[in-house]
Amino acid sequence: MSPNVSLQALLNRLGRIPSDVEELMTVLASKPREWWMKAVPYPLVNVREEADAFYVEAEVPGLTQDQIEVLIRSGTEVVLQGERRPAGSETGVWHYRERGDGRFQRTLTLPVPVDAAKVEARLDHGVLRLILPKTEAVKPHRVPVQGANGEVN
């Protein structure tokens, strides 16, 4: 901004901000809902690590077992993918339509490999819960320490 701009010109520009924001929101609302599904990660997840496994919770309200798939790639990538089907009837007039539909895919990268053969997945009340056991090679192992006389601690 030029140092020669008058205070009145600055105030005029600031006064336009609310209408500019409103115009932006109108433009975004008129776009196809796909932009929303791409802009916000889906599903939302919590990932917790413990010594022996990772625990994932993913919010997938309204989905059934046949609409979601869990894949383990390269031992460290967890892929959640599926499809949210359109809600309700296509007849009538929509007043609000904020819930997206269509295909989705979310990839989570874990810091250490998991044992894909031992992964557990359960869908319960709209929450997908995963237990991802770490591979034996990365789990902590206690090493016995010998004393000077050969006794093991």
Shape assignment: flat
Q: Roughly how many Å apart are the termini?
A: 72 Å
Spatial strand arrangement across the major sheet: 1-2-7-6
Tell me, what is the CATH class of the largest domain?
Mainly Beta
Low-confidence stretches: none
| H and E order | HHHEEEEEEE
Helix content: 10-25%
Radius of gyration: 26 Å
Beta fraction = 25-35%
Mind telling me which CATH architecture of the largest domain this is?
Sandwich
Structural category: alpha+beta
Q: What do the pLDDT scores average to?
A: 86
CATH topology of the largest domain: Immunoglobulin-like
Quickly describe the structure.
With 153 residues, the protein is an alpha+beta fold.
Description:
- With 153 residues, the chain is of the alpha+beta class.
- The chain folds into 2 domains: 34 residues; 88 residues, Sandwich (Immunoglobulin-like), CATH 2.60.40.
- It has 3 helices and 7 strands; from the N terminus they run αααβββββββ.
- The longest helix is centred in the first third of the chain and has 14 residues.
Keywords:
about 150 residues; 2 domains; alpha+beta; 4-stranded antiparallel sheet; Immunoglobulin-like; flat; about 30% strand
Q: How are the SSEs placed, and which strands pair?
A:
Elements: H1 7-15, H2 17-30, H3 34-39, E1 45-49, E2 53-59, E3 68-73, E4 77-84, E5 102-109, E6 120-124, E7 127-133
Antiparallel strand pairs: 1-2, 2-7, 3-4, 4-5, 6-7
